[in-house]
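Homework help board

Subject: predicted structure for assignment chain

Our instructor gave us this sequence and asked us to write out the predicted structure in token form, then describe one feature. I got the tokens but I'm not sure how to describe them. Can anyone check?
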Amino acid sequence: MNQTVWHNLNLCAQGDPRDTIEHAAIAVENGTIVWMGAAAALPAAFAPWPREDLQGAWVTPGLVDCHTHLVYGGQRADEFAQRLAGVSYEEIARNGGGIVSTVRATRAASEASLFAQSAARLEPLLAEGVTAVEIKSGYGLELDAERKMLRVARQLGERYPVTVRTTFLGAHALPPEYAGRADAYIDEVCERMLPALADEGLVDAVDVFCERIGFSLAQSERVFEAAARRNLPVKMHAEQLSNSGGAALAARYGALSSDHLEFLDEAGVAAMKEAGSVAVLLPGAYYFIRETQLPPLELLRRYEVPIAISTDSNPGTSPATSLLLMMNMATTLFRMTVPEVLQGVTQHAARAFGDAARHGTLAVNRPADFAVWQVQSLAELAYWIGRPLCTRVVRGGKTVFDRPLTA
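My token output:
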């Protein structure tokens, strides 16, 4: 039996800094929490167990990065320079840059090279307490390359101490070989690519980029119908650059989440509330493309739509590998509160991730997956910029990342 009492800690089990236990303890047996609460109330049965002293640190659930594009080839720093010079994201995309330039690099990369590049982006997330990460495909845009991306995503979850859920985003952009034939490409996505990849066990969810430079509502719905035939949950990149009604469409299909949402209107918010969809806000992309249209925070709050925060880690619009930085950006750019952003990377992110039964909160009979923080206040997680705060990551009761405590 593997038994440990983690003690001398302050506990934020739900990811809500308004609901905490100071001077707490957690009893873990064979990777599962069997008791937690005030240390003074620790049952006598646990007294003989080995102990781990966390020296007054704060403990939260392991963080969840619920929207990433971690697996891709190359980078797009030159396009960043173009945007700084005044070229719009849409213009870059129409001129063969944007997503399509990453498609070329991803198709050309070997599986081993793609893994190495992606692992270098995953490791900083793990060092910040992330224990679960969603990884989308969508830079292959043909069957073999999409398969390669999803295989690499699965390998990351096998070789690193993190839960990886894969999302098929074949409908991310129109590949060059289908120029002017978007409906034909959607045929390929729905009738060949998705069935093959789902049958190979490579797909946990399905996403689509519904936008004027992406795919129409009708085309997006065809993708959702194909996902429904495979009993796969759906997500949507929606209302990032315009209000197309994508979030409402996704809600009709019970989407786990709709993401970006800068141009979301009240009808879309109401539809998301009714469907139980999570609003995933991506402050890194908002910041990086210098957007000025804020997501409708007050509407989301009024309708009590759960809000998640994620890195959107990708080469073109959010080359971010810090979820803590996204928390800071969500507070400063979107005016979100500390409780909102901390729940946005724990319990609400776990819902958008599609595995709230394991991730996002700590409770008896749930896995002992948690992050240990050398802070005096949980507000510091959204306050510091660039300072290493995570001193330990525990997954299934075992330490998988350890940074020595500093004075």
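Reply (TA_rk): Your tokens look well-formed. For the description, you could write something like this. The two ends are 34 Å apart (CA to CA). That's the kind of observation they're looking for.
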